[in-house]
Amino acid sequence: MNSEFMEALATIEKDKGIDKEIILEAIEQALITGYKRNFNSAQNVRVQIDREVGTIRVFARKEVVEEVFDARLEISLAEAHEINPLYEVGDIVEIEVTPRDFGRIAAQTAKQVVTQRVREAERGIIYSDFIDREEDIMTGIVQRQDHRFIYVDLGKVEALMPLSEQMPTESYKHNDRIKAFITKVEKTTKGPQIMISRTHPGLLKRLFELEVPEIYDGTVEVKSVSREAGERSKIAVHAEDEEIDPVGSCVGPRGQRVQTIVDELKGEKIDIVRWSEDPKVYVANALSPSKVVKVTVDEEEKMTQVIVPDYQLSLAIGKKGQNARLAAKLTGWKIDIKSESEAEELGLLAEGEETESISGEYEAYSASPNDVADWLNEEEEK
To answer: Is residue 128 one of the residues assigned to a domain?
Structure first.
């Protein structure tokens, strides 16, 4: 090695952010191994690289003893005094033993070490960048697909999306641009492994943060998300400031904000509901778009009994129970839904008892491509 090699290390240090001293120490350790292997040496050697000009020297380290039993490891006191009269028994003497053709071995070793260290450093940098992006959203480009994963290029690394994390309503082609949620970042022997998802509820939350400034700056808070990807989702929002309408903030002017998210999720229906500390109101809102007339709460069982108008029963339950299931996930409460007539038969609602909708006009909003269009027409008629 020479001064040009040292300059190259300085360039690597600048471009890759790898400390030159760390690389040199790694090369020295690798050269010790190479020297032992090629020259049948004992373990007591030290390799020194001159930090200025790059010259390499190998030293055998021997202990000063009265009587020598192993010449590879020991040196007599008399021989040590020939080198330096100040040596005493127990001291370590270093004798240069640099082989004449050691430069070739050194060059090969240095190349291997530098390549390995650069690769490790790059992997470390990528891992550091992405570990901070865990549970965040990123845009990537679809590269290919096999029977296990869809491979998505995120720029510095290729992420893996298991087929189970793919939305059932979507199919991907090479070079498709998609937004995905980073679920896991792991270190592996082959470098950092990034797992992404299009079905995770966190994707919906992050999309709202991107589209709704009030959520991004903390004025409106996302309290909970429940999702059955590709079909329907519910998101509960809340604002401490009573003058701010959290549902309206998420809907946006003429429904533009939520429409952007619906488009990104390929038509997935999204119910935006107002969170409430009162479980009765919260559960009623969560069952949007159906109307709720009465909610009874059992705190011990964490269960609610909900009564809805007869004509709203199927809407409250939803297709294959989806609406009720998502509402239960959103609120964390078990929900038992009954119609008004059934409730009267069971004595849960007194005959003739006056009821009114618990859900207010602006407590919830249901968004799908058709819903947004209908809503815009209603607004124009007003």
So the answer is: no
> Angle formed by the axes of helices 102-131 and 3-16, to 10°?
10
State pLDDT tens for residues 4-20: 777 777 887 777 777 77
Instruction: Say what the pTM is.
Output: 0.70
For residue 35, give Cα distances in angstroms to 44, 104, 152.
11, 12, 44
- Count the Cβ atoms, other than its own, within 10 Å of residue 82: 10
Q: Are 237 and 247 in contact (CB under 8 A)?
A: yes
Determine the angle formed by the axes of helices 20-39 and 3-16, rounding to 10 degrees: 130
pLDDT digit string, tens, across residues 298-330: 999 999 999 999 999 999 999 999 999 999 999
Q: In this structure, are residues 52 and 42 in contact, taking their beta carbons and an 8 Å threshold?
A: no
In a shared domain, residues 284 and 351? yes
Please state, in angstroms and rounded to a whole number, the distance separating the CA atoms of residues 330 and 205: 13
Q: Are residues 224 and 343 in the same domain?
A: yes
Residue type at position 107:
A
Q: Is the CB of residue 220 less than 8 Å from the CB of residue 239?
A: yes
Query: Do the domain assignments include residue 178?
Result: yes
33 and 79 in a single domain? The answer is yes
Cis status of the peptide bond prior to 246, with omega within 30 of 0: no
Phi, psi of 226 (to 5 degrees): -130, 145
Q: Which segments of 282-329 are extended strands (E)? A: 294-298, 303-308
Same domain, 180 and 72: no
CATH number at residue 155: 2.40.50.140
Tell me the per-residue pLDDT of 125-134, one tens digit each, with 9 for 90 and over.
Answer: 888 888 988 9
Q: Do 299 and 246 reside in the same domain of the chain?
A: yes
Q: CATH number for the domain including 289?
A: 3.30.300.20
The count of structural domains within the chain is 3
Spatial CB neighbours of 285, under 8 Å, sequence gap ≥ 6: 236, 273, 274, 275, 276, 359, 363, 364
Q: Which domain holds residue 14?
A: 3-123
Q: How far apart are CA 95 and CA 97, in angstroms?
A: 6
